[in-house]
Structure formats: C-alpha cells, structure tokens
C-alpha cells in the first residue's frame, strides 16, 4: 500500500504540475520518498538507470533535431506542400495530413509529430477559414496518428526504445517485425478517423490563400542538410546496432552535426538564423529526471508485488493460445497505460514479461504487444501519455481548447478498433519473420 500511495501521489503531481512544478522534480520527489521509506533500495537506482538512460537521451536528441528543423521551417514547408497537394479538396487533404503525421512520427517520434505538426496544421486551417468542427477533425487526427503510427522504428517512441533495450532487440529485427504492423495500424487509423470525422471535413478550400512552401524556409543551410542527414542517421542505426553502439550516441552525434550547421559553428556564428539557446531551453530535459524518478517509483511497485501479479496474468493469457496472448497482453497494458501513464506501464509490462514462464514465440509476441499497447493505449485518456497532456496544453494556447470529456469520447471510440487490428496483424506477421 505504501508503494501504491507513493506512485499515486507522484502521478498526481506529474499531471497537476502545481505552480508550474516540472514533471522531473515531481518524479524525483516520489523517488526520494520511495528510497527514504525502503520501497526501493540504492541498488535499484543503478538497475533503473541502466534501463532508461539510452532511451531518455535518444529522445532528447531527437527532439533537439526536431526543434532545429522546426525553427528552420522544415515542418511548415512540408505541411504547405501537403496542403497544396490536396488541390482544394478537403476530403483529399485529410488523409494526406494523416500520412504526413505518420511519416513525422516514424522519424521524429510521436512527441515531435504531435507537438510540432499540430500547431502548423492548425495555423494553415485558420488561414483557409476552416469551420471549427473541420479544424477540430484535422487537429485530433494529428494528435491521434502521432501515437498510433509510432510503431515502425525503435526511435519512433520512447516506449519502443525502452522495450528494445530491455529485451535486447536489434534495430533491424525490430523494424522487420513492426514496419508491416505499423502499416496496418496506419490503415486502421485512416479508416476510423474517416468514419468518425467524414461529415465535419469541408468539401473544398481555397488553395490560393496558401503561401508558397519555399517561403516557410527560414534557414536554407539547415533545410538542405536535413534530408541527407536524416537518411544517413537511418542507415547508421542499422549499421551500428549489431556493433552494440547505443542509439543515444548515434542520435546525439546527428543532433550535434545539425546544431553545428544551424549555429554556423565553423564560421564563428555568422549568418546563423536558428536560435540554438532557445532550442536547447525547449529540449525536454525534465524527461531525464522524470524517467529515472518515475521508473524508480514504479520499480517500487514491482518490489511490492505488482510485477508478480502482472506476470501471473500474462502466464494465464499465454496458456490460452498465441492470439489470446497477443491481443490480451496488448489490451491489458493499454488499459494500464491509460490510468497510470504509458512510461510506467511499459516498465511494468517488461518486468512482467521477463518473469512470466511462457513459450519463446508467445514471449516475443508479448514483448511486441507490450509496445503496441503502450503506444496506442494512451489514446484512451488524456493522462495516458505526457505527449497528450502537452498537446492539449499547446492547443489551448492556440485557442483550440479540447476538454478531457471531449477527448475521451473520441479516444474511447477510435482506439479499440485500431488497437485490435494492430495486435491481430502482429499475431499474423511475427511467426512469418521468426
């Protein structure tokens, strides 16, 4: 009960953020209480750090890359191109925006897709005089697709990185399993979003109100470097993975190269456009503190018996056959993520799978189902992921307020069919590539 009380109090502080208290400080406070009361020991600190450090610093580096590109106008350029490809047809534009969101989520992680693309799309919609219901459809689509299509690569979601590191899944193996599964998730996402919002999507819009995409480019040097650098980064992930090089080192090196170009470090800073101090201030440094602090608190829950309970549930699911084990694991961890946040739920699921005595194929299905459930499960509720809470805050700052009730009415309808389709695709595909 003490471990549970510490976790609940920590989660409340993380969500509430009284007087602007950073999520990292709240999580560290919870960890300090857990250490002081003996819920976790000092030896657990090293264990948790080993689990989270690579994922956390990879995530920070990816967001730094995203922020630099955003300051240079990269995402606005892409969004304007997509708006023009729509050709004035709102019902063509809608799936194009969803596809753009999926592409950004794959490369820049779900947080980058939700937090960077959404304000740009919203600004374009306002310029095109979209009605409120139509704008809401596109905005919700941006937030939804950012998570539901954050499966394909290890770097597409912090959940993926933690899981791949915990179970020693290589970058190439992970992609071989999850890229096809992600395509199913994307197709299901498109179908459910279209079915839900089709009546709200404007039939036409005036393309002439849009600026030329090239007008959005603020730093041509960074823009020209973007595509080669991203391609090289992707290749580097596949090459360095078998060598045991941490993903954080590879991503961090790419972030430094892009910062050097943006800051004109080789010319004394002359001609620099991107405000690098602003970018670094905007990087999610609190996530570093949050990861170690919250994971310690959750580790305390595991020490108190939650892991054993979860492992027992997984063993029972594993005895029901591969399909039930896959779908059941995915929905169980999704439900857990929706009430306790997906980052703690990821660790609970990983520890439980590691302890569960099940067949090797069933275990691997559960590993990937844990990823799917924690990537998609947060869409049930606003507290399911920090990205969703930040997304809602960004929208409120832009005058597009979505209440928790509105969010859950959409999330509870849209998420289950996408989650089910994705888990079934995983059950079908994994044995094929094993």
Automatic annotation (TrEMBL):
<feature type="transmembrane region" description="Helical">
    <location>
        <begin position="410"/>
        <end position="430"/>
    </location>
</feature>
<keyword id="KW-0059">Arsenical resistance</keyword>
<feature type="transmembrane region" description="Helical">
    <location>
        <begin position="247"/>
        <end position="267"/>
    </location>
</feature>
<feature type="transmembrane region" description="Helical">
    <location>
        <begin position="313"/>
        <end position="337"/>
    </location>
</feature>
<comment type="function">
    <text>Involved in arsenical resistance. Thought to form the channel of an arsenite pump.</text>
</comment>
<dbReference type="InterPro" id="IPR000802">
    <property type="entry name" value="Arsenical_pump_ArsB"/>
</dbReference>
<dbReference type="GO" id="GO:0042960">
    <property type="term" value="F:antimonite secondary active transmembrane transporter activity"/>
</dbReference>
<dbReference type="Pfam" id="PF02040">
    <property type="entry name" value="ArsB"/>
</dbReference>
<feature type="transmembrane region" description="Helical">
    <location>
        <begin position="287"/>
        <end position="306"/>
    </location>
</feature>
<keyword id="KW-0472">Membrane</keyword>
<keyword id="KW-0812">Transmembrane</keyword>
<feature type="transmembrane region" description="Helical">
    <location>
        <begin position="380"/>
        <end position="398"/>
    </location>
</feature>
<protein>
    <recommendedName>
        <fullName>Arsenical pump membrane protein</fullName>
    </recommendedName>
</protein>
<keyword id="KW-0813">Transport</keyword>
<feature type="transmembrane region" description="Helical">
    <location>
        <begin position="221"/>
        <end position="240"/>
    </location>
</feature>
<feature type="transmembrane region" description="Helical">
    <location>
        <begin position="93"/>
        <end position="126"/>
    </location>
</feature>
<dbReference type="GO" id="GO:0008490">
    <property type="term" value="F:arsenite secondary active transmembrane transporter activity"/>
</dbReference>
<feature type="transmembrane region" description="Helical">
    <location>
        <begin position="174"/>
        <end position="197"/>
    </location>
</feature>
<dbReference type="GO" id="GO:0046685">
    <property type="term" value="P:response to arsenic-containing substance"/>
</dbReference>
<feature type="transmembrane region" description="Helical">
    <location>
        <begin position="55"/>
        <end position="81"/>
    </location>
</feature>
<keyword id="KW-1003">Cell membrane</keyword>
<comment type="similarity">
    <text>Belongs to the ArsB family.</text>
</comment>
<dbReference type="GO" id="GO:0005886">
    <property type="term" value="C:plasma membrane"/>
</dbReference>
<feature type="transmembrane region" description="Helical">
    <location>
        <begin position="138"/>
        <end position="162"/>
    </location>
</feature>
<keyword id="KW-1133">Transmembrane helix</keyword>
């Amino acid at each position: 009960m003490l471990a549970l009380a510490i976790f609940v109090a920590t989660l409340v502080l993380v969500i509430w953020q009284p007087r602007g208290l950073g999520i990292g400080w709240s999580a560290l406070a919870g960890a300090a209480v857990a250490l002081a009361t003996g819920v976790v020991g000092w030896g657990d600190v090293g264990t948790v750090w080993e689990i989270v450090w690579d994922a956390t610093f990879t995530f920070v580096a990816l967001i730094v890359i995203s922020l630099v590109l955003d300051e240079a106008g990269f995402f606005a350029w892409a969004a304007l191109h997509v708006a023009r490809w729509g050709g004035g047809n709102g019902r063509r534009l809608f799936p194009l925006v969803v596809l753009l969101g999926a592409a950004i989520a794959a490369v820049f992680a779900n947080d980058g897709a939700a937090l960077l693309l959404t304000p740009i799309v919203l600004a374009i919609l306002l310029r095109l005089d979209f009605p409120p219901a139509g704008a809401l459809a596109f905005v919700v689509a941006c937030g939804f697709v950012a998570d539901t299509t954050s499966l394909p690569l290890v770097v597409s979601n912090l959940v993926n990185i933690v899981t791949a590191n915990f179970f020693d899944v290589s970058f190439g193996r992970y992609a071989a399993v999850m890229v096809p599964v992600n395509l199913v998730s994307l197709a299901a996402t498109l179908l459910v979003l279209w079915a839900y919002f089709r009546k709200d999507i404007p039939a036409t819009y005036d393309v002439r109100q849009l600026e030329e995409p090239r007008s959005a480019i603020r730093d041509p040097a960074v823009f020209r470097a973007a595509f080669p650098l991203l391609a090289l980064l992707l290749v580097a992930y596949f090459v360095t993975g078998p060598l045991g090089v941490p993903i954080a080192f590879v991503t961090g090196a790419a972030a430094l190269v892009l910062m050097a170009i943006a800051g004109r470090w080789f010319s004394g800073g002359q001609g620099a456009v991107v405000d690098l101090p602003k970018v670094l201030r905007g990087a999610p440094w609190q996530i570093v503190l949050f990861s170690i602090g919250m994971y310690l608190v959750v580790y305390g829950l595991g020490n108190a018996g939650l892991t054993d309970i979860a492992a027992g549930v997984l063993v029972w699911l594993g005895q029901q056959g591969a399909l039930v084990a896959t779908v059941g694991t995915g929905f169980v961890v999704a439900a857990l993520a929706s009430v306790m946040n997906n980052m703690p739920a990821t660790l609970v699921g990983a520890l439980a799978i590691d302890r569960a005595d099940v067949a090797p194929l069933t275990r691997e299905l559960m590993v990937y189902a844990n990823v799917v459930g924690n990537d998609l499960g947060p869409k049930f509720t606003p507290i399911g992921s920090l990205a969703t809470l930040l997304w809602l805050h960004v929208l409120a700052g832009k005058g597009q307020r979505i209440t928790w009730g509105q969010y859950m009415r959409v999330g509870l309808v849209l998420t289950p069919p996408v989650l089910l389709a994705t888990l079934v695709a995983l059950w079908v595909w994994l044995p094929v590539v094993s």
